Amino acid sequence: MKALVYTNPNEIQLLERPYPTMDQDEVILKIDSVGICGSDMHAYHGHDPRRKPGLVLGHEFSGVVIESLSSNFKKGVRVTGNPLITCGVCDYCLQGRNNLCSNRTMIGMTRPGAFAEYMSIPAKTLITLPDDMPLDAAALTEPAATAVHAINLSMRALHRPIQECRVLIIGGGAIGMLTALLLKNFGVNDLSVAETNALRRESISRHADCKTIDPISAAVIENNYDFVIDCVGTKLTRKSAFESIKPGGVIMHVGLQDWASEIDMRKLTLAEITLLGTYTYSTADLIATVNYLNQGAFGNLAWVEKRSMDDGAKAFDDLHRGNTSSAKILLKPS
Predict the structure, then answer these.
(1) Domain that holds residue 225
(2) pTM score
(3) pLDDT tens profile 56-83
(4) CA 20/CA 30 separation, integer angstroms
(5) Shared domain check, 171 and 61
(6) Residue 158: which CATH number?
(7) Which of 55, 138, 163, 226 could form a disulfide with 62 if both were Cys (CB 3.0 to 4.6 A apart)?
(8) Rounded-to-integer distance, Cα 21 and Cα 10, Å
(9) What tens digit of pLDDT does each residue of 258-313 get?
């Protein structure tokens, strides 16, 4: 079968790979659509030591079961799924917080991912799709669930309903775009997105109907927002988040481009700022997100770009160079 293989930093190639095998209670999927994630780009740049050359990346997928060793999923079922493979028995799994599983593994990291014509995966991770749900939309479940999980965590900490808040999203990539679309659906009208790429700013303004800011040319307005969501996660964006948040506000930290930096502990303390971190989503979030997508809560998804998997290497290069306005490229195996 054909698969996109991460071969070296800044290099991904379309190669022949063996057809996948199954263990007990696993299935083989024929992949329909698979999204290029920011973490795939992080690996592509050689910045993720967990993802080593020779790996098939990809974890935002939809597809159809074509072989099964599970009694719960038969041939022909349309699915998406949780790329996190969790143990089901640790304290976090038993609490329903399986995104924090102590023994988790992941497709596209510890086993071959979805940038391929076929992929094997444990059946317990799969989510059956509504009959009328397009498979392209279903492939957005994973990144959209990241937005759902982050917003749900944040709403528990906000002192007023989210609809009353002035909100800033830092970063207009896929997570930033999906977060903006969902916040608009939830009734948030005072919403701004800071994004350095002019093509993406135009796309966000058009599809999410919110204000955009070029952080390169526009200075951060201090103490201006009730809720700030950092979807980038660099030293600079963390600094901007702390400068722009109002006293008593909430910062949700989603992105993780830089793994360490200083934060303004004085403002955190004296202004009673709530700083939250988030990691992926629970299975409950994924199921809720399938329903949100199917109900149109994220809009018509016209901003999503679709390409053949044969064009995968160029798609990675275009994202690397900032040559596309789309915050999400879906690859389609031929």
Answers:
(1) 144-277
(2) 0.95
(3) 999 999 999 999 999 999 999 999 999 9
(4) 11
(5) no
(6) 3.40.50.720
(7) 138
(8) 29
(9) 877 788 999 999 999 999 999 999 999 999 999 999 999 999 999 999 999 999 99
Give me the amino acid identity at 172.
G
d(CA 260, CA 41): 19
Tell me if 215 sits within 8 A of 240, measured CB to CB: yes
DSSP 231: S
Q: Any alpha helices (H) in the chain, and if so which ranges? A: 38-44, 91-94, 135-138, 141-157, 174-185, 198-208, 235-244, 265-270, 283-295, 312-321
Pairing relationship of beta strands 26-35 and 60-68 according to DSSP bridges: antiparallel
% of the chain at pLDDT higher than 90: 93
Tokens read off for 217: 């040319």
Which 8-state DSSP code applies to residue 125?
G
Query: What's 318's domain CATH number?
Result: 3.90.180.10
| pLDDT at res. 201 | 96
Q: Is position 318 within any domain?
A: yes
* The pair of three-digit structure tokens given for residue 318, joined into one six-digit string: 């275009």
Whether residues 118 and 175 share a domain: the answer is: no
Count structural domains, the chain: 2
